[in-house]
């Protein structure tokens, strides 16, 4: 059996009871960095064999582990933080295990994606997670163009070293899009800074310390001024003064009050 276990993204107390039980019962715990995982296990008094499983040995380890899982090995898969397979190693092993008919169970827990989305104040219905932002300027510019057509919040991971450059690029491409920089989530120096890309670029001129999650707020709705002017005209027909009607529709839609006034004449 393969148990995919979410681990804390910062605060070691955020681990679930189910994950702790699974780590205790496992024959082996597969982890990105054995030193990081050992800290979590020591905190909760768990003694178990650790085996490295990271991006540089993922293919080799998967080939080794699947026959052992088929033979009855009980393995717990963890990453340094969060849920394996979400911008972390694990997806290859999970897919191979399922293909081989091995039982795979997922034990949910802390997630930097959802934590940042809620902390940003932009959570609502739909959102898009794009993983780590591309390093190249052209690739980043293409992503900004793509996201400009996406009206919902967007969550991305970014390194602190590249954050100032990323915010400057975002300010040039999407200057009015609201943004939140979520830093060191669940840790002692947790910080959530909100503003326009330009405002945050001025705040983070130098790379900050700690892990970063970037959240773009929803894009402003495109305003149909013709429909707005029609709404103003209907209000005028119902006896509302034209200027008052234009002000009311402008507040509700974000359209220009003057444009609505002129369009309803």
Structure characterization notes:
This protein is α/β, with parallel strands linked by helices. It has a 5-stranded parallel beta sheet. It has a 5-stranded mixed beta sheet with strand order 6-7-10-8-9, sandwiched between helices. Helix 2 links the parallel strand 2 and strand 3. It is elongated and about 80 Å long. The N and C termini lie far apart (71 Å). The model has no long low-confidence stretch (mean pLDDT 93).
Per-chain topology:
Elements: E1 2-5, H1 17-25, E2 28-31, H2 34-43, E3 50-52, H3 58-70, E4 75-77, H4 91-99, E5 104-107, H5 112-120, E6 128-132, H6 137-148, E7 154-158, H7 163-173, E8 179-183, E9 191-195, H8 197-203, E10 212-216, H9 225-237, H10 242-253, H11 257-263
Parallel strand pairs: 1-4, 1-5, 2-3, 2-4, 6-7
Antiparallel strand pairs: 7-10, 8-9, 8-10
Spell out the helices and strands N to C: EHEHEHEHEHEHEHEEHEHHH
Strand content: 15-25%
In what order do the strands lie side by side in the largest sheet? 3-2-4-1-5
| Largest sheet composition | 5 strands, parallel
């Amino acid at each position: 059996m393969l148990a995919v276990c979410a681990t804390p993204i910062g605060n070691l107390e955020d681990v679930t009871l189910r994950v702790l039980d699974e780590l205790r019962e496992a024959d082996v715990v597969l982890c990105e960095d054995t030193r990081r995982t050992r800290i979590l296990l020591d905190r909760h008094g768990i003694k178990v064999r650790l085996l490295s499983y990271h991006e540089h040995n993922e293919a080799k380890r998967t080939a080794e582990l699947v026959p052992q899982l088929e033979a009855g090995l009980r393995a717990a898969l963890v990453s340094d933080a969060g849920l394996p397979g979400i911008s972390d190693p694990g997806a290859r092993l999970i897919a191979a295990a399922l293909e081989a008919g091995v039982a795979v169970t997922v034990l949910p827990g802390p997630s930097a994606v959802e934590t940042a989305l809620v902390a940003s104040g932009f959570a609502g219905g739909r959102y898009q997670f794009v993983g780590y932002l591309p390093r190249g300027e052209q690739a980043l510019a293409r992503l900004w163009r793509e996201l400009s057509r996406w009206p919902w919040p967007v969550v991305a991971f970014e390194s602190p070293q590249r954050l100032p450059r990323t915010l400057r690029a975002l300010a040039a491409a999407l200057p009015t899009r609201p943004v939140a920089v979520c830093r060191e989530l669940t840790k002692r120096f947790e910080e959530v800074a909100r503003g326009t890309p330009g405002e945050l670029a001025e705040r983070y001129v130098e790379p900050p310390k700690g892990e970063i999650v970037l959240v773009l707020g929803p894009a402003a709705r495109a305003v149909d001024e013709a429909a707005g002017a029609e709404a103003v005209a209907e209000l005028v027909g119902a006896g509302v003064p034209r200027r008052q009607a234009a002000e009311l529709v402008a507040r509700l839609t974000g359209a220009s009050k003057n444009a609505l006034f002129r369009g309803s004449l």
